[in-house]
Known about the structure:
The complex is a heterodimer. Chain A has 19 helices and 16 strands. By secondary structure, chain A is α/β, with parallel strands linked by helices. Chain A folds into three domains: 2-244, 2-enoyl-CoA Hydratase, Chain A, domain 1 (Alpha-Beta Complex), CATH 3.90.226.10; 267-425 and 461-493, 2-enoyl-CoA Hydratase, Chain A, domain 1; 432-460, no CATH class. In chain A, helix 12 (336-351) packs parallel to helix 14 and helix 16 crosses helix 17 (449-459). The longest helix of chain A has 17 residues, at 2-18. Chain A is elongated, with a radius of gyration of 26 Å.
Amino acid sequence: MAFETLLEEYEKRRAKALAMGGAEKLARRRKAGTLNARERIERLFDPGTFLESGLFGASGVYPEEAEETLTDGKIAGYGKVGGRDVAAVINDFTVKGASTSATNSKKVAHMKRTATERGVPLVIIGESTGARLPDAMGARGMGQLLGNDPTQFRRLRETPMVTAVLGPSFGSSAWLACLSDFAVMHKGATMAVSSPRLIEMAMNEKVDLEELGGWRLHADVTGLVDQVVDKEEEVFEAIRRFLSYMPGHNQEAPPDAPVPAGSGADMDSVFAVLPQSRTQVYDVRRIIRAVVDKDTLFELKPRFGKSAVTGLARLGGKSVGIVANNPLHRGGALDADACRKITDFLVLCDSFNVPVVLLVDTPGFQIGTEAEKSGAPGKIMNFMNAMTLLTVPRLSVIIRKSYGRAYVCMGGGRHSDDVAAWPTAEISFMSPDFATMIVHGVKPGDPGFAEKLADIEQESDVWGLAAVFAAQAVIKPEETRDYLIRMLDVYRLRMTRGVGQHLMRSWPTSY
Amino acid sequence: MARIEIKSEITGTVWQVKSSPGDKVESGDTLVVVESMKMEIPVITEDAGTVKEILVKEKDPVAEGQVVAVIEG
């Protein structure tokens, strides 16, 4: 009999915990078209694979509030994504706004520890108000709740970390998104240090949520989120897809995938993407999409630092990171934001054993007063240094222009395992027009300018680079895909089974 | 409906104006072309919408970050 009573009690408590913050709050969310935490779990994991950790947790500060703090507002546990284990924290906004307190901090720490020590990715589904009050109030509150786990915000990139920014994401959701390797944001969500209410009280500044921390700010200006999606369901698709390119931890190579039918089918027309005139621009993503396995380009930060494209993809079924200049924006000139984006991406690739392919068409780094105000030289050197610390295989293909310091940063010389160039490649310290003016002191229209320009242009062509073995191959554009697949195999890290040295594992998580 | 400012990414001179108020535009459409660094650099909208204002004309100098058009989308 006593056992039956215990089992009844168990079922009662379990049902209550699974019911989250109660029917009324859940109905409000449903009406607003917002998924609740348990619906999010269903979308994140392979069906039926979620195993919860801490279902019976509750407030560790106020025992009398156990009923209102079921699971303590943050659901934790393990599940499979594409058949592989992942540790996750899913914020339940219906319980105290998923605010941070004692018990749920232990749950988050437990997930992070398991992920880090046992080599599985960590996923955070954010939507939170920040620290719980009054729990964290006063000296005692602060001393009890904050700062007791020195690994809480430590990132050594042992395993991939992903955060979804949903709804209001203040406090922990914002911090963890910034620490992540991949942050995906739902349009309409807000990520900020503090809520508009506090800002209004403290600074008498009336702020609009979107302006304070909306998707446009983070996608276009701060670069703190990697992707933005229209529908909430797409958040979970994006996370699953990101993880498909990643190993479970940094001591293994990323998993292989089948090569989709139709891959490489557009290679015959890839040369036609280049405009006839060198003063005209094109979208390098058309070349990338033709070269990589069909439909595998997964672009990161597409609206930030747009003169560079960074994205994960596959070549011959293997994960690669693509870094390309995009002449469509700024003519391909790399500004501070583009450098920040590339650096961030190189750190990601090297930390998780993803080989890098660079596609080069840049007139150089952005010059001018705006560039200098944004600290361009510092950002350029971060990029340069990252290229010297990269330990995964990397190949570069010079499509068209490669000038000055950007030639080196984009993999010139020994900064790639192998450099290939299209016959259209032009390489020099600066664009031939300006070089003619500076070297010969003549302007367009002056007698002799045209002849001098022609000489300098000829000196900049691909054959000079090939003659001194600074390009190991000159390839026809349509051969690019086959060449890269073959060369990535040649440069495979055989002795470490595809594992690099992760020299940038402790680099910042945003720049 | 949001008011979206379309900015030139680069300092240069307006080479061509490709759209006018009232035009319906899609993500990726070119509104204005700026000549800079001896190249024709498009000013592109990331968002679909309707062109409300074009704030420059051919041969105008533009600065990096300058708003050249406004769309509603």
